[in-house]
Amino acid sequence: FASLDNKVSLCSDIWSDHWQSCSYMEITCYWIDNAWNIQKRLLAYRCFNDPHTAQNISHLMFIILEEYGLTSKIFSISFDNASANTCSIDELIRICQPSIGGKFFHIRCTCHFFNLCVQDGLRSLKTYIKPIRTAIHYLWTHPQVMKQWGRFCKANGMRAKQFARDVPTRWNSTYKLLLSTFEYKELLCGFFDQVVQSSSLYLYANQWNIYTTICEILKVFSDATDQLSGVYYPTCHLVATHLCNVVCIFCEHITSNEPPLIECIISMKTKWEKYFLNIPEIFLCAIVLDPRLKLDGLGELLTLYSDSLNPITDACPSSSMIISSVRHSLTEVYTEYNEKYGSQVATQTQQTTSSIITSRLTKAQNLIRDRTKHPRGSSSSNLELENYLTTTFDFSATDDEDTFDILRWWAQKKQVYPILSLMAKEILACPVSTVAVEQAFSMGGNTLDERRSTIRPENLEVQCLLNDWSRAASRTQDQDETNDDEDTEDTSETTTGGGGTSECD
C-alpha cells in the first residue's frame, strides 16, 4: 500500500460469534492495481467487544487504517444500513479527508436493500408459498417418505430430485426452492395425493402459475445480487442498470390479475422508493465512465427508471437536473485530481513522448522536449473531461455487458485520458455489496467451533487474513469455501433427511 498511487475502497461489518461471545470487525479493501486488475484483501478480523457506537466503530477503523498506512488513501466505504455504521461516517470523513468533501465516501450495501425489499414483498405471499414450503420440508425431515419419493419418481420414469431447502429468512433460498420444483410439479402433486394422502399436505398444479410469476420477480433480484457481489470485476457502473431492471419488473406486474401479487409489488415498490427514489450519484458517475454510455446513455437510463417507477411522490428530480448534477460532480473530481496529479501526469507523458521521439524523430527532439516540459493550460482546464464526453468511440458488436472489459478499455486509454483514467481507477473499484464481509465471517465461523472456541482473537485474525491473502494469489477469493445447505443437485441414490444420508431408491 505504501507504493500505491491511487486510493482504495473498503467494505466493513461487525459479526458476533456465539462460541466466544465476542464481536469481530471485518474490513476488506478493494483497489485497481497498475496492471488494471481489481485486487481484494482482508485487512482485519479484529476483536471488537466495545459498545457498537459510532465513536467506537470509527476509532477502531482508524487504528486499523493507520496500521496499513491507508488513512489518507480511502476513496469510499461500504456499510450495511446499521445506524451506528451510518453515524460513524462523519467522523471517518473528518479523519480520512476523502475526495470532494466525502460526497462519494459512504456507499450503502445495495444487496442489503434488495433483501429488505424482497422480504417485504414475500410477506404478502406467505399463504401461497406455504404449501410447497411445507411439502418439501416434510420430504427433508422424513427419510422413509423420501425413500417412497425416490421409488415414486423411478416408477414414473424420472430421476428423484433432492430439492433445495428453504430458509424463510433468506429469500434466495425460497427462489431456489421454487425453481427446483417446476420440472417435478406433476409428480409432486401426484405423490402427495396418492402416497402421502394428508389433507394438510396437498398440492395443486395450478399453484405453479403464481410460482412462475414469483420466480420472474425474484430472478431480477437474484441476477442483480449475483452480479453486484462479484470480486474480480467492477460493479459500481452496473448498479443503475440493475435498478432499472427491478423497476421494470414492478411496472410489468403491478397490473396483475392476482391480488396477492399486486399487494406484493406494492409492498416492494413502497420499500424501494424509500431507498432508491433517487439513485446514489456515485453509481451515476460510474455509468458516465462507461464509454458506451456516458451522459447520453445515463439520460436514457434515468428516463426509463423514472417512467417505470412512476413514483407516487413528486420528490424525484428531473433527468436533466440529475445529469447536470452528475456533470458538476465529475467536474469537481476532475479538477481536484488535476490539481493533485496534473504535474505528475505531465512528467510521465513527457517521458513517454521523449522516448518515442528519440527513436523516430531525433531532429525534432529538442523542440518536443521543450514543449512537454511546459504543458500549457492543463492545470485548470477540464478539456480532457469534455473531450471524453463529446468523443464518439467505436465498439465491436460483441461489446455487450457480458463481454465488454471496461478496465481494459481504460488501461488502453490512460495515455489519452491520464486524469480521467485515475478517476476511473478509484470510482470503478468501489464495492457496492458487503458480500465479501459475509464470506470473511463465514471463514471465521468455520475456524471457530466448539472444540476450538478458546482460540485467541488475534490468532483467529491471523488465520483469516492468511487464508484470504493466499487465495488472492490464485484469485479464488470469490469462491465460498463452505458447503451450501441449499444443494439442488439431482440425486437418485442418496438423500439427506436431517444432515445424514439415506437411500432414495
TrEMBL record:
<dbReference type="GO" id="GO:0008270">
    <property type="term" value="F:zinc ion binding"/>
</dbReference>
<dbReference type="Pfam" id="PF14372">
    <property type="entry name" value="hAT-like_RNase-H"/>
</dbReference>
<feature type="domain" description="hAT-like transposase RNase-H fold">
    <location>
        <begin position="230"/>
        <end position="337"/>
    </location>
</feature>
<keyword id="KW-0479">Metal-binding</keyword>
<dbReference type="InterPro" id="IPR025525">
    <property type="entry name" value="hAT-like_transposase_RNase-H"/>
</dbReference>
<protein>
    <recommendedName>
        <fullName>HAT C-terminal dimerisation domain-containing protein</fullName>
    </recommendedName>
</protein>
<dbReference type="GO" id="GO:0003677">
    <property type="term" value="F:DNA binding"/>
</dbReference>
<dbReference type="Pfam" id="PF05699">
    <property type="entry name" value="Dimer_Tnp_hAT"/>
</dbReference>
<keyword id="KW-0539">Nucleus</keyword>
<feature type="domain" description="HAT C-terminal dimerisation">
    <location>
        <begin position="384"/>
        <end position="469"/>
    </location>
</feature>
<feature type="region of interest" description="Disordered">
    <location>
        <begin position="471"/>
        <end position="505"/>
    </location>
</feature>
<feature type="compositionally biased region" description="Acidic residues">
    <location>
        <begin position="479"/>
        <end position="492"/>
    </location>
</feature>
<keyword id="KW-0862">Zinc</keyword>
<keyword id="KW-0238">DNA-binding</keyword>
<keyword id="KW-0863">Zinc-finger</keyword>
<dbReference type="InterPro" id="IPR008906">
    <property type="entry name" value="HATC_C_dom"/>
</dbReference>
<dbReference type="GO" id="GO:0005634">
    <property type="term" value="C:nucleus"/>
</dbReference>
<dbReference type="InterPro" id="IPR052035">
    <property type="entry name" value="ZnF_BED_domain_contain"/>
</dbReference>
<dbReference type="InterPro" id="IPR012337">
    <property type="entry name" value="RNaseH-like_sf"/>
</dbReference>
<dbReference type="GO" id="GO:0046983">
    <property type="term" value="F:protein dimerization activity"/>
</dbReference>
<feature type="compositionally biased region" description="Gly residues">
    <location>
        <begin position="496"/>
        <end position="505"/>
    </location>
</feature>
